[in-house]
Amino acid sequence: MLFLNLENQLLLIMVLTFSFWLFINAFVIKLQPMKTRAFGMSFIIPLFMTSASFLISVYNKSDAISLFVLAHVLLLINCTAIMLFKKDADSLKAFSIIPYILVGLGFYLSSTSIYPHLFWVIRFLTLVTLVINLVLLINTMFHKEKDQAMGYAGLFILSFATGLMLMSGMVSGEALLLMALGYICCTVYIYKNALGNFFKEYKQSTEALKRMNSSIQTEVIKRVEAIERSNRKLLEKSRTDSMTGLLVKPAIIEKLEAFIARAPKSTISILMFDVDRFKQINDTLGHQIGDQCIRNITSLIQTSFRKDDIAGRFGGDEFIVLLPDTTAVKAFLIADRFRELIQNKSNPEITISVGISNYPADGNTAPALIEAADKALYSSKQKGRNAVTLFSTLN
C-alpha cells in the first residue's frame, strides 16, 4: 500500500490539508485579486487526485503513484502559468475552469498505458517549472513586487520536491520536508495577497472611520463652542443696555446681591443719579440730543471710575454705580467730582443730581440700599438739583 509508511501518511495529510484550505479560500474570501483566486483554485488538482491515489493505492500502487506525481506536475504547470499574469488580468478568468480540465487530464494520463511513455516529458516539465519560478523569484529581488515572492518560492520548492520524488521513486524525508515547505510558502502567498489585503483594507477602513469620528467629534465640539459663545453673547446682550453698553437694572441688582453675599463684612457704596430736567431737553432739543446726552454721560462714566467699579443704566436717564470697598464719605467726594465733570464737560450743557447709600450702614439688602440711594437722589432734586446727597444725612 502506497500510504502505509509514516512519510507517505504525513505527505497525504499535509497535501490534503493544505490543498483543501487553499482551494476553499479561493471561494470564501471575496475581496481578493483574481490572480490569488485562480492560484487557490489550482489546488483542486492535488486535492482530488491525491484523494483518488489514496483510494486506489490498495488495488493498484503504480496508478496511485502516477496520480500523485501527475497531480503535482499539473499543479506546477497551472500555477506557474498563473504567476506570469498581472493581478487582475482578464485572461485569469480562464483559470477558473482549467484546473477541472487538468484533473480530468491527470486521470487520463495516469493510466498504465500512457503514463510510462511520459517519463521524460514529466521530468522536463518539472525542470521547466523549477527554472521559471527560480528566475521569477530572483527577479522579484530587484523589483517592487515583493508580494509575489512567496508564490514563486513555493512553486520552486514544490518543483524541487517533485523532482526528488521522481528521481528516487519514493517519498524521502528530504522530499517530505521540501513539499511541506513549498505548501507553507504557497499558503503564506495566499494569506498575504488575499487575507492580507482584506485585513489591510479593514485596517484602512477602521482608521478612516476613526479619523471620520474624530473629525465629526471635533466639528461637534466646534459647533458646541460656537453655540456657547453665541449664548454668552446673547446673555451679555440681555444683561447690557443696547445704547450705552452698561449693565441693565436686573444685572446691576444681581451684582450688588452677589457682593453682599460674597463679602458680608465689607463695605460698598451705591451712587444713583439722573439728568436734571431731561424731559425738557427731549422736548426742546429733540430725542436725538437727549440720546447724545446719555452717550456722553456713559463715556464720562467709563473714564472716571475705577475698573472694579460697576456701572449700569437703571432706566431712562437714571444711572447707578457700585463702588466696592468705598466708605460713604469717600463716595461723596467721588460723586461730587463726577457731578462737576458732567457740568463742565457735557455738550449740550447738563447737570446731574446724585444720591448715595452705603452698605451696611444704610441697608443690608440690595433693594433696601437702592431705595435708600433713590431717596437721597430725590433729596438732591429737592435741594435744587445739581447736588450730591448722602442717605445718612436725611434725618
Short key terms for the protein model shown above:
395 residues, alpha+beta, 5 strands, Alpha-Beta Plaits, five-stranded mixed sheet, 13 helices
Summarize the structure.
With 395 residues, the chain is of the alpha+beta class. It is 67% helix and 8% strand.
Mean pLDDT, all residues: 87
Low-confidence stretches: none
What count of structural domains? 2
Shape: rod-shaped
The number of distinct β-strands equals 5
End-to-end separation in angstroms reads 131 Å
Overview of the structural elements:
This protein has helices at residues 6-28, 34-41, 44-56, 61-83, 98-109, 119-140, 149-168, 173-239, 249-262, 278-285, 287-304, 328-345, 366-382; strands spanning 268-275, 310-315, 318-324, 352-359, 388-390. With 395 residues, the chain is of the alpha+beta class. The protein has 2 domains: 6-206, no CATH class; 249-393, 2-Layer Sandwich (Alpha-Beta Plaits), CATH 3.30.70.270. α13 links the parallel β4 (352-359) and β5. α1 (6-28) runs antiparallel to α3 (44-56) and α4 packs antiparallel against α7. The longest helix has 67 residues, at 173-239. It is rod-shaped and about 140 Å long.
Write the layout of secondary structure elements.
Layout: H1 6-28, H2 34-41, H3 44-56, H4 61-83, H5 98-109, H6 119-140, H7 149-168, H8 173-239, H9 249-262, E1 268-275, H10 278-285, H11 287-304, E2 310-315, E3 318-324, H12 328-345, E4 352-359, H13 366-382, E5 388-390
Parallel strand pairs: 4-5
Antiparallel strand pairs: 1-3, 1-4, 2-3
Helix pairs in contact: 1-2, 1-3, 1-8, 2-8, 3-4, 3-5, 4-5, 4-6, 4-7, 6-7, 7-8, 10-11
